[in-house]
Every structure is written in C-alpha cells, then in structure tokens.
Fold this sequence. Notes:
- The chain is α+β, with helices and mostly antiparallel strands.
- The protein folds into two domains: 31-253, no CATH class; 316-523 and 551-676, TIM Barrel.
- The protein contains 18 helices and 30 strands.
- A hairpin with a 4-residue loop joins β7 (118-122) and β8.
- α7 (391-403) runs parallel beside α8 (420-429) and α16 packs across α17 (609-623).
- The chain is globular, with a radius of gyration of 25 Å.
Amino acid sequence: xxxxxxxxxxxxxxxxxxxxxxxxxxxxxxxxxxxxxxxxxxxxxxxxxxxxxxxxxxxxxxxxxxxxxxxxxxxxxxxxxxxxxxxxxxxxxxxxxxxxxxxxxxxxxxxxxxxxxxxxxxxxxxxxxxxxxxxxxxxxxxxxxxxxxxxxxxxxxxxxxxxxxxxxxxxxxxxxxxxxxxxxxxxxxxxxxxxxxxxxxxxxxxxxxxxxxxxxxxxxxxxxxxxxxxxxxxxxxxxxxxxxxxxxxxxxxxxxxxxxxxxxxxxxxxxxxxxxxxxxxxxxxxxxxxxxxxxxxxxxxxxxxxxxxxxxxxxxxxxxxxxxxxxxxxxxxxxxxxxxxxxxxxxxxxxxxxxxxxxxxxxxxxxxxxxxxxxxxxxxxxxxxxxxxxxxxxxxxxxxxxxxxxxxxxxxxxxxxxxxxxxxxxxxxxxxxxxxxxxxxxxxxxxxxxxxxxxxxxxxxxxxxxxxxxxxxxxxxxxxxxxxxxxxxxxxxxxxxxxxxxxxxxxxxxxxxxxxxxxxxxxxxxxxxxxxxxxxxxxxxxxxxxxxxxxxxxxxxxxxxxxxxxxxxxxxxxxxxxxxxxxxxxxxxxxxxxxxxxxxxxxxxxxxxxxxxxxxxxxxxxxxxxxxxxxxxxxxxxxxxxxxxxxxxxxxxxxxxxxxxxxxxxxxxxxxxxxxxxxxxxx
Length: 683
C-alpha cells in the first residue's frame, strides 16, 4: 500500500488527519545508538501502513561483524530484537545471535553457528544441525530486516544468483530495475531485486550503490534508510509497476475464458437456498452469467459448448471469507482455496481502486466488498491513516468512505466511545453499516445500543462480561483476559441470556474469527498450528516454518485454561445459533487457506455442515448486499462456482478437495494456481 493517501471528494477534508497520522504514536520506540566499537552506523525508519512505528539500526563493528537493533510498535505489540551477525568472505552468516522479544512479547534467544563445515541452529521453534559443503544462508526464525538485505547481497555474488537456505529451501535472485532516489537535495542510484523461494511471492529488496540495504517495502510495512523517507513514494511506485507486470503475466497464463458456452454436467449441486445437495445436475454458463440450471438431460445444450463432466463431485457457489485484509498479491491465494469473494475489513478510501484489477482481469483475485476503518490516535492506534479525535473529523472520515463507495464503517479499539454515536449517525446518513471492535472503555452492550450492526471477533463478546476487570482493551489484555477468564463465564446465566436477547432484538451479526483464536490460545512453539495442519506440508518451506511460531505466551500452569477458553468460544457460537443470532465466516488470517479451518471449527462446535456451507456462500453474499447476483447457483447470477471432490454438505473438510474454480465465468485450475505460489498441488 502506498504511504500516500489518495483522497476522493470530501476526503480532501481529511488532510489534517493524514498529516497528524504521519507523526509517530507516543509509544513508537526510539532508535538506539551504536556503541563506541562501531565503525559504521546505518539508521532506518520503519513504517506500518504509512505511520512511523519503529526503527532498525545497523552497527558495523571493528571486527567486521554487525550488531542490528530492531523494534516497532503495532497497537501495543511488536518485537524488540538485537542481533549480532558475523559473515564469511561470501557474505553468508557464520554466526547469528539474536535476543529480545517477539511480536507478542515472548523471549527470544536464537543462535546459529558454522564450525568445521557443520551448521547448528536453535530457535524458539526448532533446533538442528547439518553438514554443509557450500555456502548456505541461515534465515532466522525471529530475525531482523537486515537479514533480507544480506541475503540479497549474498545472492547477487553467488553462482547463478542461487543459494541453498538453512534450515531448508533455496533462494534465487533477479534484478528488476534501477532508479535514482532523491531526498533533501541528495540522490542515490538504487537497485530493486526480487528473491524467490522464501514465500508465496517474490520478496523485494532495494540495495544502494554500495550493496547495502536501502529499503524493503511490502503491503504492510516500509523500511527505509533514515533521511530518505521522502523517496519511499517513488520507490513504491516503481516496485508496484514491476509487481503489476508480474501479476498480469500470471493472470494471462492461468485465467481462461471459454470461447463458447460452458456446460457442467452430472454435478451434485449444492442448493444454497435449501441447504441440500441435488444430484445429476447440469449448469450452463454463457460468458460470466449462469443461464440455465436443471436435471441432466432436461436442458438444451448450446452447439459447440465446452463440457465439463463433474460426475461424483460437488458443485458449490464460490466461497466467501468475510474478514480479510487483502493485498494485491493475496488474490491468487484466495482463488487457490476456492474463495471467489471476500470482505476487506480495514480499507481506506483508495483501496477499491487499487483492487479493481481483480475485476478487470489484470491480476488474479476474488471479488471484494469493503469496510472502511476508523481509529483514534494514541500509542495503540491501528495501522491506518484514518484517525479521528473529534466529531468533525469523525464525520469527515465517514463521508470520505461513503464517497469512495465503502458500504461499511469498522470502528477500532482506540476510538473515543463518545464518538461512536457520531460515527453511527453519519454512517446511517449514507446508508452504511457499522461494526468492528468494541472500543476501549466501552462494553459490547453499549456498542450495540449505540447502533452497531456487527461485532467483529468472539473475544469482544466475552469482554462484555469482564468489563469490571478489563476496561482498556486496546492492549493485549483483550486476548489474555479472555484466555484466562472465558471458562468462568456461565453462558446459561441470566446476564448472558439478556445480552444475547439484545443482539437478536437489534439484529446484530457476529463475525467470530474462531480460527484466529484457536491459533492464539492453542498454538505452541515448535508445533504446527492447528489452523494450518491439514495443508502445512504443501506449503513453501519458510511458510511452513512460520506455522511453528506458536500463539500467545502461556503463563506457567495455564495451558489447560487457554485451551478451555477456546472451547468456551465454540460454546458461545452455539449459544448464538440457539438464540437466532446470525454469524458470518471470516478468518482475519492468512489469505485463502485459513477459511476451511474456520468452517471446520463451526462444525466441530455443533453447526451442521450444510448450514455452514450456506453461511459461507449465500448468507455472506446477502450480508454484503450481493445476494441477488452471488451466493447461489441459479439462472441470471454471476458465474462464481467451485468443483470439489466429496460432499461438503456432509463433511465440511471436503471444501479442501478443490478441482476447479470458476470466477466471473473464467476457468482456473487450482493445481496450477498452487504451483505458481510455490504450493504443492493436491495431487
């Protein structure tokens, strides 16, 4: 995302908001100076979604080793690391020692060393050793950004620009472009490189004329040499241009629009309206619309039609993920998991235009509906530039979202509770829904009475009953207090039942994101995350390694309690269902491959699989205001469908057995999508 906010109409009134957002939050860590033994110092500024959030300082010491200090604040969370790195003549680490804390505050003490051709490592998730006969680059589990720059430089000098990685994998480097960066009357020639082999997409790194890290930019954060911050926009524009060319080529290779009508025959069709499977069904598609649906043999097949035999397979409407934070490179991941529509739950006014390439076919991706985000300023502010402190700012922010076509306003945790009725009032004037987190110093009941249409995240419901103990929910207490206390809350109590009755009366929808809490409460370092266990072995090696990270730090003796807290969340889901309160399927997790686990958790809780499928298709489309065109397979609707092996209406996990994706009438092979992302295909 560009660090410059693009305004539309009344959004120009938000110039003061944008300027204020450029100031660092009060708790953004300040740079730490190098010691006297440093011969070279390089300082970097770290931004999160355009807001300055932290720093990196590289201290090159007299013996040639480097000490790297890195820290940032993201809503009261964030790492604080010091890493000592020694390099060999190839620029490859021969020792790494990193200490500090990770994003959630867990202590870090990671070590790597090479001695006599033997590499050994130990991190919070793994320990191992390997005999190495050629240079191999160790990528830390809990590393500093400087490692990406060092890897880029090492690959630049390596034979064929390729090098094995430790603990496993291989990286390859491609030079993309060079530009002149300018700031403060200075200019430098900088080069953009792309590293493949680290994740789903290439990792972009900018090096300067001396081969040192100049900038690392992605969709969430920006790291740039201190003093060169004004150059970020030009760097990002050039990087975006190169990324757009890559995405367009991928779309050209993988999308196929039939040149004649498409006929899917012998399918077991999931009727989203009734929640039943209908066997022996034919569906006819012309361009991007469904033109006919009926029993096999009952429809006139257009001459020259392309036929697909779906015998023994299920034909479903495309799935929806109703809580995502997509970037352009996430599009293929959603499609590879059968998700043809999503809701972006933290959009700014320029986001619809940037993601429009998913609809034009310039990039692979799902349909997107948007919820704009608003937060208050302070040390726990969300990573957004839409920050408000008074009524006029709040109304201007909502008006800008309305003019950009965003149908919903998401309120975040630092918003002043007194501004919630103001935001609701302005949203109602524009026909927009309102939901989000429950702000600090406010209860969920108060938010509902103030006009919330939705509440995002299941922990917000439990915090309603912990308000006497936890009023400031901007901090990680909004997780840890629920992990400790949720098992004590009697869901059959009069207090809980009154609250559920209020939710039903006010027609509030819940977005539980259970998978996110399963990961937070039950994942443990060194064990594959339960959310991704079914797909972990198919993922790129470094992505799989990330699944070992673990969740919240668990106090001694609290393991069983944290697990019980997650079970309480599943019990709350069933209490919502019994009370007739609707909920949507959203993940707030890794794009694409986290949705299947979300659906499985609903079934584990006791929701019938067919009902879960309906929630993830037709009910999602209706809530997003697209039920007349999407969410079911019927004549006149847009052709968004998936074919899977098995019967997900009986076994929800069969949604993972994806065989074909149809999005807007175009055909996509999920195996080819996976291969393009470095994911091992299903077969």
